């Protein structure tokens, strides 16, 4: 997977590692947990910029948003950016819950991160195949887009992408 390939090509490549429906289902839970957990671990430090509170999480979201929006599938990129933004906002809302649990924010984030990855690896056990990022680190960026794409395709959208995936990677099973 090349970092600058179009979204559709990235999705087809990623789909080769994700044809088992149980694996796809675990990704619908695990990937958002992982993304939110990373966001939570990046909620510190915080800088006030006017009336806006800026954190490393929002900076990472901004940079990844540019990448998703520049992959050539506007609907997929836009919905991925919105979903990721909601997950970062949720991470900021949940971060203060660490203290009552006797944890630092990074510890709570790390715990959620581990849970997300355990769910992912259960899915790849069903798949009988290693995660895509093992062969190409870009797979870590494609994961959130893949999850959004699967939901959009289940809603009857992205029909051409679905056909390309099924033609090149095979149908889900």
Observed structural traits:
single chain, 173 residues, two-stranded antiparallel ribbon, 7 helices
Could you please describe the fold and organization of this structure?
The chain is mainly alpha-helical and 173 residues long. The chain has one domain. Helix content is 66%, strand content 3%. It is built from seven helices and two strands, in the order ααββααααα. The protein has helices spanning 7-15, 21-41, 56-69, 74-94, 105-127, 139-154, 159-169, and strands at residues 47-49, 52-54. A two-stranded antiparallel ribbon has the order 1-2. Helix 2 packs across helix 3 (56-69), helix 3 runs antiparallel to helix 4 and helix 4 (74-94) crosses helix 6 (139-154). It is globular. The two termini are 23 Å apart. The model has no long low-confidence stretch (mean pLDDT 92).
Largest sheet: 2 strands, antiparallel
Overall shape: it is: globular
How many domains is the backbone divided into?
A: 1
Termini separation comes to: 23 Å
Q: Strand-and-helix sequence, N→C?
A: HHEEHHHHH
Strand order of the main beta sheet, please? Answer: 1-2
In percent, how much strand structure appears in the residues? under 5%
- By DSSP, the count of extended strands is 2
Rg on CA atoms, Å: 17 Å
Residue share in helix: 55-70%
Which class do the helix and strand fractions yield?
Answer: mainly alpha
- Secondary structure tally, helices: 7
Low-pLDDT runs of 5+ residues are none
Report mean pLDDT, rounded to a whole number.
Answer: 92
């Amino acid at each position: 997977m090349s970092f600058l390939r179009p979204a559709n090509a990235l999705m087809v490549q990623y789909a080769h590692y994700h044809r088992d429906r149980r694996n796809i289902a675990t990704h619908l839970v695990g990937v958002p947990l992982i993304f939110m957990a990373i966001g939570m671990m990046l909620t510190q430090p915080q800088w006030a910029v006017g009336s806006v509170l800026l954190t490393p999480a929002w900076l990472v979201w901004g940079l990844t948003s540019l990448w998703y929006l520049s992959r050539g599938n506007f609907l997929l990129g836009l919905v991925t950016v919105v979903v990721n933004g909601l997950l970062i906002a949720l991470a900021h809302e949940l971060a203060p819950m660490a203290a009552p649990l006797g944890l630092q924010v990074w510890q709570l984030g790390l715990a959620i991160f581990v849970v997300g990855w355990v769910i992912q690896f259960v899915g790849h056990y069903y798949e009988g195949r290693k995660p895509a990022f093992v062969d190409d680190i870009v797979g870590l960026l494609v994961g959130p887009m893949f999850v959004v794409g699967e939901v959009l395709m289940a809603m009857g959208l992205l029909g051409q992408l679905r056909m390309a995936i099924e033609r090149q990677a095979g149908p889900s099973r």
